[in-house]
Amino acid sequence: MMFDKKPKSYTDLLGKTNRIVESTIITGNISSHADFRLDGDLVGNFQSNGKIVIGPAGSVKGDISCKNADIEGKFNGKIQVAEVLNIKSKASIHGEVICGKLSVEPGAEFSATCVMKHNVKNAVSNDDQQKPEETVQ
User: Fold this and answer.
1) I need a surface site. Which of 26, 109, 111, 112 has the fewest CB within 10 A?
2) Maximum CA pair distance of the chain?
3) What count of Cα atoms within 13 Å lies in the side-chain half-sphere of residue 45?
4) What are the pLDDT digits (tens) for 72-106?
5) To the nearest 5 percent, what fractions of the chain are helix, strand and coil?
């Protein structure tokens, strides 16, 4: 069967969350099939089929590609979210945003170009092959 060769599906990883605590600094790229919570600092790119949560003390400088995202901390770079991007009131976002749905709480600092697409999954999975050409300003 074809299923035997596949890595664990996203549903097999539900309830499993990677966590990087405050005062931890990661320099490099992260790739994960499970959900991820970042309360430390990441200088590099993050890619996941799951959800990333950037806590209030967390920060990312780099590119993010994921299914869902909640941001309470700082982000600087390009973020592609296939489904929902939630930006909390204390968040600071700079760069480029491509998402399916966007939620921004009042008080958030949002200085980014933003493209909302109904089907971002293709852009997320074929990141290098597909470059968005439309920009909303």
Assistant:
1) 111
2) 51
3) 10
4) 999 999 999 999 999 999 999 999 999 999 999 99
5) 10, 50, 40
Q: How far apart are CA 7 and CA 30, in angstroms?
A: 17
SS3 70: strand
Measured CA to CA, the distance from residue 3 to residue 107 in angstroms comes to 46
Residues whose CB is less than 8 angstroms from the CB of residue 119 and which lie 6 or more positions away in sequence, other chains included: 100
Q: What is the pLDDT of residues 42-68, one digit of tens each?
A: 999 999 999 999 999 999 999 999 999
* pTM assigned to the model: 0.77
How far apart, in whole angstroms, are the C-alpha atoms of residue 54 and residue 87?
Answer: 10
Residue 65 contacts residue 80 (beta carbons within 8 Å): yes
